[in-house]
Amino acid sequence: MDQILRYRIGEHNRIELVQGDITRQETDAIVNAANSSLLGGGGVDGAIHRAAGPSLLEECKKIKMQRGSLPAGKAVGTTGGLLKARFVIHTVGPIWQGGRYNEPQILENCYCNSMAEADRFRCATISFPSIATGAYHYPVLPAARIAVHTIAELLHQGKHSIRTVCFVLFEQEIFDRYEEVVHETAEHYPQYQIMEEPLSL
Ligand code: ADP
Questions:
Q1: Would you say the CB of residue 136 lies under 6 angstroms from ligand 1?
Q2: Domains and CATH numbers, the chain
Q3: Phi and psi (nearest 5°) for 134?
């Protein structure tokens, strides 16, 4: 069983932390930490392509032919193929190079542009992996702070169709770090009204 923690953001929105595999999520969209080629790769990208089946790669190839490579920080949506999620939003994280090459801004753009793309598809629920903290070596704590703060701010603004954002974290260690960061964000930004929800049995 996946470990899940639920938090309300104000009256209408939610953040969930899930320790598990993003390919099994039933949210309207899941986000892929892709690379610029859009042709699949290792990590979460490989897992999503395997689970979605070949139609995902076909759609990605078409997008690449039309628009070229996807720059870091941008996002583009496809259908979900065989996944339970109806859409996959592909975004390219920053490769960590010590933090002086605009990596924080690029990572924030990944979250903002993915939410905007999901909004275009009128999604109400979306799952994110921990973008850039695998092969791209972004340190987990600052990456988690950008992820949680950016999403809390967007949900607080309430301009999108999205009501629930799940962070689906493969490793227990990363899950624990996100949990710390949600509590830290609740404390530092009382205006977001972040409240842990007890889980019903
Ligand atoms: P990046 O290149 O953006 O760093 P990676 O796929 O290498 O992307 O890693 C991003 C995060 O996704 C890592 O924390 C990795 O452990 C995690 N991950 C790998 N497979 C899955 C999966 N099936 N579901 C959720 N997260 C995953």
A1: yes
A2: 3-197 (3.40.220.10)
A3: -100, -110
For residue 191, the 8-state DSSP code is G
Would you say residue 199 has pLDDT above 90?
no
How many A from CA of 33 to the centre of ligand 1?
7
Cross-strand bridge partners of residue 90: 32, 76
pLDDT above 60 (res 114): yes
User: How far, in Å, CA of 67 to CA of 64, rounded?
Assistant: 5
Q: Encoding tokens for residue 164?
A: 């629930």
Contact by Cβ (8 Å): 19, 79: no
The residue behind tokens 């009204």 is 193
pLDDT tens, residue by residue, 146-157: 999 999 999 999
Single pTM value for the model:
0.97
Is residue 175 lining ligand 1, measured as CB closer than 6 Å? no
